[in-house]
Amino acid sequence: MRTVYLNGEYLPEDQAKVSIFDRGFLMSDGIYEVTSVLGGKLIDFDGHAVRLQRSLDALDMKHPSSKDDLLEVHRELVRRNDITDGMIYLQVTRGNPGDRDFAYPPEDTVPTVVLFTQAKPGMADSPMAKTGMKIISIEDQRWGRRDIKTVQLLYPSMGKMMAKAAGADDAWMVEDGHVTEGTSNNAYIVKGNTIVTRHLGNEILHGITRAAVLRFAREAQMKVEERPFTIVEAQSADEAFITSASTFVMPVVEIDGAAVGQGTPGPVATRLREIYLDESRKAAV
Amino acid sequence: MRTVYLNGEYLPEDQAKVSIFDRGFLMSDGIYEVTSVLGGKLIDFDGHAVRLQRSLDALDMKHPSSKDDLLEVHRELVRRNDITDGMIYLQVTRGNPGDRDFAYPPEDTVPTVVLFTQAKPGMADSPMAKTGMKIISIEDQRWGRRDIKTVQLLYPSMGKMMAKAAGADDAWMVEDGHVTEGTSNNAYIVKGNTIVTRHLGNEILHGITRAAVLRFAREAQMKVEERPFTIVEAQSADEAFITSASTFVMPVVEIDGAAVGQGTPGPVATRLREIYLDESRKAAV
Question: What are the DSSP calls for chain B, one per residue?
Answer without folding.
Answer: --EEEETTEEEEGGG-EEETT-HHHHH--EEEEEEEEETTEESSHHHHHHHHHHHHHHTTPPP-S-HHHHHHHHHHHHHHTT-SSEEEEEEEE----SS--SSPPPTTPPPEEEEEEEE-TTGGG-THHHH-EEEEEEE----S-TTS-BS--HHHHHHHHHHHHTT-SEEEEEETTEEEEETTBEEEEEETTEEEEPPPSTTS---HHHHHHHHHHHHTT-EEEES---HHHHHTSSEEEEEETTTEEEEEEEETTEEPTTSS--HHHHHHHHHHHHHHHHH--
